[in-house]
From TrEMBL:
Descriptive protein name: Histidine ammonia-lyase
UniProt crosslink position (5-imidazolinone (Ala-Gly)): 142-144
GO terms of biological process kind: L-histidine catabolic process to glutamate and formamide; L-histidine catabolic process to glutamate and formate
EC code: 4.3.1.3
Residues with 2,3-didehydroalanine (Ser) modification: 143
Pathway entry: Amino-acid degradation; L-histidine degradation into L-glutamate; N-formimidoyl-L-glutamate from L-histidine: step 1/3
Listed GO MF terms: histidine ammonia-lyase activity
Name of the coding gene: hutH
């Protein structure tokens, strides 16, 4: 399937399809006219004498240096090659494909002045699976994601490196094997390709999609933990949350009610239970997870707007003037990434406390120590809980906002930067930690519910346990645990855990 992207109205579900499913993408043909008109305007300026930034001048601090018309192509080629300064491991393929799709959308606004040939090459690379090797580090999130986007642009020129059909090849070989021809960049085209927030935005979107998947899974495991701990669903009563009014809280409480509906475990201890209130990690799930959901939704709106934006410089405006501005500054993306990081951290923090509750016989209302049927001889899930604590702490350390940092670059021409790119990139590691925390909670809460037999959990949660047990068996005696933890994390990462649930029960972005 090839997605047809309409700049200005591209939505999160389309972008998620590129990220999760590897969908190819192309621009709506209705964009062609505006793209060609802007390209003609740039060609006109390039042929004239009036200096216009990035078309017939140098870049950044070198903007005052006039470039001869005969050197236009060399200027653009030099720009790309000199900016290929990324370091570190290559970004994941699905992130790079999302970067390419976002660049298409930005160019499709008809304000960048590139020829249709560049657009068609990007579309063909997505369709045929030519994925540029983009090192993960090197952008400060202002004046565009210059270094990483230059590595993408280099492949379009037949330079750099790309993955194709499972091999890492030179850019020229990758294009050739895909049946594609490199382009020679015309006036402003190199600048249009590397000025922009597409790397920061793609990484932030990846973090958003992953954090939201984890958030939905955390409601499922939180409901399982509530039943395993013989907690009360009374704090999830809709009136409590309506009286406060936060939509995320209302939606999270509704999800927990639906997940627990029909559980025999709760009915079994309504009478004779001397506990008046459950710990916060059980009772305040809607308030905490709901607040995190609201943060994710706010970040989602910001990133959806940014995904549809023209963020290079200068821009061809509606009156045919070409004006330099600062849309390449990724401050909105940096703020969104920081919000996602905070939400990610807190989802894991409260989940970890539920894990700690379940393995502690002083708190778990009758469950054996560390959820082992033979505690002492077996350590059970003792160290799985320790691992979850380590991951929670690591996420806390990584949640410090990146957006409050700045350092001047490019001889002080770019004297305030957003740090959006690494602020967003850290979300990949943070969400991996969160997947593991939620996976560990799934193992603990499922074991806890099973130890309540012959009492049964809700039909919905029973399906979740069945799905988990197809991958990780019940822990009877101690065994090598690392593979169990990875398999449990994978059920969160790949959506299997939430896939066992009616999707209407769980909140969307």
């Amino acid at each position: 399937m090839v997605l047809v992207l309409k700049p200005g109205s591209v939505n999160l579900s389309e972008l998620a399809a590129v990220y999760w499913n590897g969908e190819a993408a192309k621009l709506d043909p209705a964009c062609d006219g505006a793209i060609e008109k802007a390209a003609a305007r740039i060609a006109e300026i390039a042929a004239g004498n009036a200096p216009v930034y990035g078309i017939n001048t140098g870049f950044g601090k070198l903007a005052s240096i006039r470039i001869d018309a005969a050197d236009t192509a060399t200027l653009q080629r030099n720009l790309i090659l000199s900016h290929c300064c990324g370091v570190g491991a290559p970004l994941p393929d699905n992130v790079v494909r999302l970067i390419m799709a976002l660049k298409l959308v930005s160019l499709g606004r008809g304000a960048s002045g590139v020829r249709l040939a560049l657009v068609r090459l990007l579309e063909a690379m997505l369709e045929k699976g030519v994925t540029p090797v983009i090192p993960e580090k090197g952008s400060v999130g202002a004046s565009g994601d210059l270094a990483p986007l230059a590595h993408m642009a280099a492949v379009m020129m037949g330079e750099g490196e790309a993955f194709f059909a499972g091999d890492r090849l030179s850019g020229a070989d990758a294009l050739r094997k895909a049946g594609l021809t490199p382009v020679q960049l015309a006036a402003k085209e190199g600048l249009a390709l590397i000025n922009g927030t597409q790397v920061s935005t793609a990484l932030a979107l990846a973090g958003l999609f992953r954090a939201h998947r984890a958030a939905r899974a955390a409601l499922v495991t939180g409901a399982l933990s509530t039943d395993a701990a013989m907690g009360s669903p009374a704090p999830f009563h809709p009136d409590i949350h309506t009286l406060r009014g936060h939509q995320g809280q209302i939606d999270s409480a509704a999800a927990l009610r639906g997940l627990l509906d029909g559980s025999e475990i709760r009915v079994s201890h309504i009478e004779g239970d001397e506990r008046v209130q459950d710990p916060y990690c059980i009772r305040c799930q809607p308030q905490v997870d709901g607040a995190c959901l609201d943060l994710l939704r706010q970040a989602a709106r910001t990133l959806e707007i940014e995904a549809n934006a023209a963020t290079d410089n200068p821009l061809v405006l509606s009156d045919d003037t070409v004006v330099s501005g600062g849309n390449f500054h990724a401050e909105p993306v940096a703020f969104a990434a920081d919000q996602i990081a905070i939400a990610n951290c807190e989802i894991g923090a409260i989940a970890q406390r539920r894990i700690a509750l379940l393995v502690d016989p002083a708190l778990s209302f009758g469950l054996p120590a560390f959820l082992s049927k033979k505690p002492g001889l077996n350590s059970g899930l003792m160290i799985a809980e320790v691992t979850s604590a380590a991951l929670m702490s690591e996420n806390k350390q990584m949640s410090h906002p990146a957006s409050v940092d700045s350092t001047p670059t490019s001889a002080n021409q770019e004297d305030h930067v957003s740090m959006a790119c690494h602020g967003a990139r850290r979300l990949l590691g943070m969400t991996e930690n969160l997947f593991a925390i939620i996976g560990i909670e799934a193992l603990c809460s499922a074991q806890g519910v099973e130890l309540r037999a012959p009492l049964k959990t809700s039909p919905v949660l029973a399906q979740v346990i069945d799905s988990l047990r197809q991958r990780v068996p019940v822990l009877e005696d101690d065994r090598y645990m690392a593979q169990d933890l990875e398999k449990a994390a994978a059920t969160v990462r790949n959506g299997v855990l939430t896939g066992a649930v009616d999707q209407n029960l769980l909140p969307d972005l």
